[in-house]
Amino acid sequence: MSPSSVPSSSAPSSSSATSSPSTPSPRTTAAADTLPSQDISAEVLLEKYAKGGERTLDDVRRRVAHALAQAESPEHRADWEARFLEAQRRGFVPAGRIASAAGTELSATLINCFVQPVGDAIAEEEDGVPGIYTALTEAAETMRRGGGVGYDFSRIRPKGAAVKSTQSSASGPISYMRVFDRSCETVESAGSRRGAQMGVLRCDHPDIEDFIHAKDQGDLRNFNISVAVTDAFMQAVEADAEIELIHRAAPGAKLRAAGAVQRADGMWVYRRLRARKLWDQVMRSTYDHAEPGVLFLDRINADNNLHYCETISATNPCAEQPLPAYGCCCLGSVNLTTFVADPFTPQARFDDAAFTEVCKVATRMLDNVLDVTLWPLPAQAQEAANKRRVGLGFTGLGDALVMLGLRYDTEPARAMARRISEAMRDAAYEASADLAIERGAFPLFNADLYLSGGNFASRLPPWLKDKIRAQGLRNSHLLSIAPTGTISLAFADNASNGIEPAFSWRYTRKKRMPDNSFKEYAVEDHAWRLFRHLHGADAPLTEAFVTALELQAADHEAMVAAVAPYIDTSISKTVNVPADYPYPDFQDLYALAWKSGLKGLATYRPNSVLGAVLSVEPVAQPEPLKPEIGPNQRLRVERLPKPVLASLRWPSRPELPGGNPAWSTMIRHPHGDFALFVGELPAEGPDAGLFGRTLPFEVWVNGAEQPRGLSAMAKTLSMDLRTNDAAWLRLKLDALATVAEERAFEMPMPPLGEPRLFPGVVAATAAVIRWRCEQLGALQEGGPTPVLDAMFSREEPRTGTAGTLAWAVDVDNPATGELFTLTLKEVSLPTPDGGTVTRPCAMGFSGNYPKALDGLARLLSLDMRVLDPGWIGMKLRKLLNVGEPLGHFMAPVPTLFGERRQQVWPSTVAYVARLVIHRYAMLGVLDEQGYPLVDMGLLQQAPVTSANRSAALAAGVPAMAGKKCPECGNSTLIQRDGCEFCTACGFVGQCG
Fold first, then answer.
1. Would you say residue 951 has pLDDT above 60?
2. Active centre residues (catalytic)
3. Tens digits of per-residue pLDDT, 743-780?
4. Which end of the chain lies in a sparser environment, N or C, as judged by fewer CB atoms within 10 Å?
5. Region Disordered: start and end of each range (predicted)?
6. d(Cα 616, Cα 565) in Å, to the nearest integer?
7. Regarding predicted confidence, which is higher, 989 or 67?
8. Is the peptide bond before 751 cis (omega within 30 degrees of 0)?
9. Helix residue spans in 641-749 (DSSP H)
10. What's the rounded Cα separation, in Å, for the pair 418 and 530?
């Protein structure tokens, strides 16, 4: 939407936020008042925001109201404190820094983020801009006090530029970004919040291509990055023209010899390239790696209310606030769901009057924040005093639209979003004009310059412009739609984040406890919860219930375009698309955003490039296993082999409605006889040979006298037969060949019945299976070995004399008289970011147990040492339904949060499988259903389609590849709605 098409209000509202507090209107969402709270909301509140003896929302709100009221005159302080408390109860949610630090003894800022300048000199100031290491020191102090930081690194001279003082060549901005990255990693912010950073580089900087690909291999982990794009560049993209990559610093001799020249304006042209080629790199990188985002620099500056006294070149880390040097984000959001009356009915409506009242009080509260906060740097305090920027926004738009019966990707929904945004704009500007009468306009206010020039303020409705001319304006900027992350969880019943639609309706949050165990919480979207509360668990959802991943990327962009004309700074918007979203549908998204007049955009498409559970550094052989030293002693693998993940696809058991041939024989052992069957199918493709052949694909046993546990061993061995990895199958059969039981026995072997001595029935069964596989040519040497190559250790890891920790659990089956201990030996493996993940590597039994389980244990121990945990997860899931006659029994259900619930299990084997899955879940490797938290390519997954995506999201959030989660340790941390979100454990981290 072009700015000229923005509708305007015709008249002012009747109330204003002046020095005489008025009585608020009643709440409009009585239905939500009866909705019980979520346990996760209370947990997040206590963990992140409550201080001292605070336990409830109102406890925190009272502290915040009291702290912000200290900026009021003493005679009105109590009145405004009550008004500030009521505004929060009615839906105003101050930003996280305000909620966590206002009114406390913490030496922390109440400001979420800043932009700080970075010059080209090493330390000294140049043209009023601090040098690189001075800027680094300022950034560290800001992050130490709790603020995130954005930077424009474009002033730093390119790689290969001349450095006259040392007669050397410059290393370029990305090398210095790494220094900032490490500093951020080291500095712990106030309140234990990891620092957030945004790195920006202009599209015409000579190092722009390196910048675009800087995060491809996992570098700059503590940065979001965005390319600052000019209109001239975008026009060159459209025209398929060349652009010049330029800098004021002179290039070195090599670059001059390669063609670098100086222009008439003094700038150096390092090289030229086609704009479209560069743009394609941006789009492909953000599709593959979720970065960089883009900032449309000319649009940002043209729309800036202070175009007459500042130039903007960067944003805060989540990009909802383009800011000048030392500019700040003083943020708060109004929860829109609290203003929907009669939700989910034909009479559903939005209460504009109540919303306007809360917006006006919220504007005053944010202005007060600027006066009561601690400022990390004097320059930040001075910048805020001169301009008094604040950023009022909303949250819960997606849920509010659902409650109003409006589907997010429709024009009626966008029209409602425009109406709400216009009401917020008018309320905030009117309140700020009234504050100017009471407190004075911001020092750099100039009515003629402020209200002219085609900027945002010049497009305000006439009545509001007249009011501003007559009264002045307290705040230069007033509006910003930021991500809400954990404040939505704590203060808004998990209403949808900011401008976003809901990401999912429900998921499970697995929170790590002090003893390193996990506790589970159900996390449900507010609108979904309210609908179920009002209409029951089985009522069909309305058509308005649509999640972020069900939308087209253009639908996300269209909502931003609808709201953007009413927001004077910017909007944090992450376009989340599923992993299978087609690139042709994605590649024009940023160009569409530019044409729509947006100031920027970010996207996130989860994919395996962003992270994997385990490191896959290519080395010839695994390093020797080394025990760790200390009380938490575990075996440790220092480096891992590189698995050929692409070749580890395998089919499940085929559907055979017409049946299939099977070879059978009798296993004769001291306690009776039973039948062994080897199912066979014709080979296909190159394995078929000239005359055709058959291959084994499963084994099973049948008969009342088969040893207990043997059928489970056969079931898991069947899966190995379908790997097309002969060496892997040989390894499995070798492992079974020496399983010893109470006493050895002789048994006739095919084909002639010669007697052969075996240490037990497991070994005998394995020998017969081996013989049949050899007859069919399934064990021949040569050929691919994809599963074998994916093992981190072929032999069972051995401890030194110091020993190692293991996990053990007792199993008691009264139905069979079995009482034994299951033990899992565990090993620490490296992860891509330098950390470790603990994995079981072998299992065993002790006590009174079916001895055939020793064979199962040997098979599963080998499966545990395959890199992709999806392999062992698949094996264990198949064992959960193994039943035995008269072998079922009741035992506790293992859970991460310690619930004591009994369940009937079909067999000892099924219970053992469930216990092992539970241990993997405790370690954050599998979920409690036995599915891997990251798909590494081993198993052939069912494709996610638009037809089944809704059902998948309704059931919970599917695990998606991303960065390492600081909570559960899995590489499943994605960007969701501008905030970090772990698709494995539900952790919500920093926003921006």
1. no
2. 316, 318, 320
3. 899 999 999 899 999 999 999 999 999 999 999 888 98
4. N
5. 1-37
6. 47
7. 67
8. yes
9. 710-721, 726-736
10. 25
